[in-house]
């Protein structure tokens, strides 16, 4: 055997050893990830039960469990949490799909313009208030970005409480489409104000952005989301309508829903569209294509399938929260939080007053729109990536303030939402009957 052939054999053996070691590491990491995910769901479920025992929303219990597993005990590291990002993406997809399921055009045709007015007024007012207050502590360019992100509302806690406690009434009928439309309005405002902010900070550039250049990216994102969600929604709606009445009906229905959520969420992330708006559009299309019998079936299958995913999602969200960012945010974080509370509450009151909503909607809509989590984090990451190129310290301020805000609203938001629905007398958690939003509509008769 020659030297070179012997060396080749040694290299092959080394290669095999390396592959075996790599395979062992991968399987070891994967097994640890799966075990941690099981512990996360277990702890989330346990603390959710404890929270409900003390009349606190289960979501708050999930978040507390996450805090214990993450920043407090260090049982789950940030690196491991990043490896579970698919759980968060899928959970947000299901939540958005369910928001879309509630947007039945027959129920919205008389209130559509009112919803648009309420959404735009509260979002613009919140942005204006937060921008004005924070500009006394940070540069105007940073204040504009903070104001834009402040308008974002997290649909997840709101949807979870509505589904968990079977909320029904005028406040529920108002907040669902508002939350759905809020994502589109927030993306447009964020895109415009971020472009202005970057141009203000980039003093070396003499380029003046046109209005079209400012709205081009967010508008493209929304159009792609509508196109993708609409196409997949049509296919899903047609598939659900063809399901025959047999014992496998629920299983087939669930398969279609899961495929729809995975396709809309995955393609949205791949193409740079909104992973919330896309499945929401799909859910809206589906709910307006199927009859009432199919709707009941769809509600039942989702309701029994998603709870473990939701527990994992909110517990992981709690594990991602870091206490040190609260101190890093400083006075700017406090001003941002107070400004957002005032902006959401007074902006919602102003919008509902303009469209002459009932007194309970005027009173409790703003409180119900306070939750802020996934969408805000996503926008803050986008802002950090853009701003860090031209101004690193300013980008870090945005990131710390938003993370501190998310920590605050993640813990307080669900509690406030439940209080708002309870005082509005729309909580019906003791009832077991299924409520069909269009049961009197001729368009959804069998």
**Number of individual domains:** 2
**Name of the top-level CATH class of the largest domain:** Mainly Alpha
Mean pLDDT: 78
**Helix content range of the residues, please?**
over 70%
Question: Based on CA inertia axes, which overall geometry fits?
Answer: globular
Extract low-pLDDT stretches: 1-7, 18-27, 430-446
| Share in β-strands | under 5%
Rg from Cα: 24 Å
Going by helix content, strand content and strand pairing, the class is: mainly alpha
Task: Please give a structural write-up.
It is globular, with a radius of gyration of 24 Å. It has two domains: 69 residues, no CATH class; 359 residues, Na+/H+ antiporter like fold, CATH 1.20.1530. It is mainly alpha-helical and 446 residues long. Helix 7 packs parallel to helix 18. The protein is built from 18 helices and no strands.
Gist of the model:
This protein is mainly alpha-helical and 446 residues long.
Key features of this structure:
0% strand, 446 residues, 18 helices, Na+/H+ antiporter like fold, mainly alpha, disordered N terminus, disordered C terminus, 2 domains
């Amino acid at each position: 055997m020659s030297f070179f052939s012997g060396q080749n054999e040694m290299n092959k053996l080394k290669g095999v050893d390396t592959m075996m070691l790599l395979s062992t590491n991968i399987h070891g990491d994967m097994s640890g990830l799966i075990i941690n995910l099981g512990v996360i769901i277990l702890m989330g479920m346990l603390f959710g039960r404890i929270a409900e025992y003390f009349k606190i929303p289960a979501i708050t219990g999930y978040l507390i469990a996450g805090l214990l597993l993450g920043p407090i005990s260090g049982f789950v590291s940030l690196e491991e949490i990043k490896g579970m990002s698919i759980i968060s993406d899928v959970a947000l997809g299901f939540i958005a799909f369910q928001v879309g399921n509630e947007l039945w055009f027959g129920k919205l045709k008389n209130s559509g313009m009112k919803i648009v007015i309420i959404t735009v007024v509260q979002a613009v007012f919140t942005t204006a208030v937060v921008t004005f207050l924070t500009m006394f502590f940070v540069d105007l360019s940073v204040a504009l970005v903070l104001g834009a992100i402040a308008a974002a509302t997290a649909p997840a806690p709101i949807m979870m409480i509505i589904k968990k406690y079977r909320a029904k009434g005028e406040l529920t009928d108002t907040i669902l489409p508002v939350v759905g439309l809020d994502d589109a309005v927030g993306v447009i405002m964020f895109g415009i104000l971020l472009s202005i902010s970057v141009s203000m900070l980039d003093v070396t550039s003499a380029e003046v952005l046109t209005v079209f250049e400012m709205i081009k990216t967010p508008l493209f994102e929304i159009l792609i989301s509508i196109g993708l969600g609409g196409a997949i929604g049509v296919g899903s709606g047609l598939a659900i309508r063809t399901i025959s009445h047999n014992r496998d009906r629920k299983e087939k229905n669930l398969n279609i829903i899961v495929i729809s959520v995975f396709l809309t969420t995955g393609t949205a992330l791949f193409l740079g569209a909104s992973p919330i708006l896309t499945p929401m559009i799909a859910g809206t299309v589906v709910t307006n294509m199927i009859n009432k019998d199919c709707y009941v079936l769809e509600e039942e299958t989702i309701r029994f399938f998603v709870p473990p995913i939701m527990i994992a999602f909110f517990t992981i969200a709690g594990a991602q929260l870091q206490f040190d960012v609260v101190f890093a945010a400083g006075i700017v974080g406090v001003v941002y939080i107070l400004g957002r509370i005032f902006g959401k509450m007074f902006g919602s009151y102003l919008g509902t007053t303009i469209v002459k909503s009932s007194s309970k909607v005027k009173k409790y809509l703003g409180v119900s729109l306070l939750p802020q989590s996934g969408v805000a984090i996503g926008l803050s990451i986008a802002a950090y990536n853009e701003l860090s190129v031209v101004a690193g310290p300013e980008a870090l301020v945005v990131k710390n303030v938003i993370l501190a805000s998310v920590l605050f609203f993640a813990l307080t938001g669900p509690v406030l939402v439940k209080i708002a629905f309870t005082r509005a007398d729309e909580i019906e958690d003791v009832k077991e009957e299924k409520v069909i939003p269009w049961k009197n509509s001729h368009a959804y008769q069998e």
